């Protein structure tokens, strides 16, 4: 049982390049999330998806787009990467409404934009 | 808007020295308050969910409590392996966001 899987684990981009971070979960969860983590800033919500076919902005959505491809997969796209997007990105999933509402996290993608 | 504030930012304790971490929150109806542990280079690991004021949960040397405005993570007789960043998060009724605090970095000295 893999839980939440993120790819890639590491990536270096040049300013202006684009890329997509992939996330897949095998727990049949309805909700999925993308966070970024910077030193001293905790986890900040970029976008979330409450169910297949819906997405909503979080605390820091500028410069990002997302796609909820199906119930399992939620991708994060950087159209034109900037050095300010250097961060560690975490994907998470949860099942609201059930007995256990906590989110489960992937191992993260460490992104450097030069 | 839902908000979470954790204190202190960092805490250094001697092995065996008990203490508490604080998580103050404002939320439009609480569906759940979560505590996570995060080790360097890894994703957050779930510890506890608290749903209503007065609730308490325990796991080994950790005990989490909840009031209407804050939660505490009590660490009793900690060991060096308890060193980590502890994160608090809230899940409100207004939407499906899970909002995190900035965390407390805990270092237990042998």
Explain this structure.
The complex is a heterodimer of chains A (114) and B (110). Chain A has 114 residues and is mainly beta. Chain A is built from no helices and eleven strands. Chain A has strands spanning 4-7, 10-13, 19-25, 31-38, 42-49, 56-57, 65-68, 74-78, 87-94, 104-105, 109-113. In chain A, strands 2, 4, 5, 6, 9, 10 and 11 form a seven-stranded mixed beta sheet that branches. A four-stranded antiparallel beta sheet of chain A has the order 1-3-8-7, with no helix packed on it. In chain A, a hairpin with a 3-residue loop joins strand 4 (31-38) and strand 5 (42-49). Chain A is globular, with a radius of gyration of 13 Å. Chain A starts with a strand and ends with a strand. The model of chain A has no long low-confidence stretch (mean pLDDT 93). Chain B has 110 residues and is mostly beta strands. Chain B is 0% helix and 60% strand. Chain B contains no helices and eleven strands. The termini of chain B are far apart. The mean pLDDT of chain B is 95.
Keywords:
heterodimer; A: 114 residues; mainly beta; 7-stranded mixed beta sheet; 4-stranded antiparallel beta sheet; globular; B: 110 residues; 6-stranded mixed beta sheet; 5-stranded antiparallel beta sheet
What is the element layout, followed by pairings?
The complex is a heterodimer of chains A (114) and B (110).
Chain A (H helix, E strand, L loop, with lengths): L3 E4 L2 E4 L5 E7 L5 E8 L3 E8 L6 E2 L7 E4 L5 E5 L8 E8 L9 E2 L3 E5 L1
Chain B lengths: L2 E5 L2 E5 L4 E8 L3 E9 L6 E6 L5 E4 L2 E5 L3 E6 L8 E9 L5 E3 L3 E6 L1
Parallel strand pairs in B: 2-11
Antiparallel strand pairs in B: 1-3, 3-8, 4-5, 4-9, 6-7, 7-8, 9-10, 9-11
């Amino acid at each position: 049982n893999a839980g939440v899987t993120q790819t890639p684990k590491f990536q270096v981009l040049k300013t202006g390049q684009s890329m997509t971070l992939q996330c897949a979960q095998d727990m049949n969860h309805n909700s999925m999330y993308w966070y970024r983590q910077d030193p001293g800033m905790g986890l900040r919500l970029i976008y979330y998806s409450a169910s297949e076919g819906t997405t909503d902005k979080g605390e820091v959505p500028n410069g990002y787009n997302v796609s909820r491809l199906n119930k399992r997969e939620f991708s994060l796209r950087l159209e034109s990467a900037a050095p300010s997007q250097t961060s560690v990105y975490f994907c998470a999933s949860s099942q609201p409404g059930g007995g256990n509402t906590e989110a489960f996290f992937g191992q993260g993608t460490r992104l450097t934009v030069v | 808007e839902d908000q979470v504030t954790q204190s202190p930012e960092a805490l250094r304790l001697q092995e065996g020295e008990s203490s508490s971490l604080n998580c103050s929150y404002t939320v439009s109806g609480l569906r759940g308050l979560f505590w996570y542990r995060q080790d360097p280079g890894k994703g957050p690991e779930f510890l506890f969910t608290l749903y209503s004021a007065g609730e308490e949960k325990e796991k080994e040397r950790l005990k989490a409590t909840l009031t209407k405005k804050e939660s505490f993570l009590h660490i009793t007789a900690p060991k060096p392996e308890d060193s980590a960043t502890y994160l608090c998060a809230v899940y409100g009724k207004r939407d499906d966001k899970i909002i995190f605090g900035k965390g407390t970095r805990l270092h237990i000295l042998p």
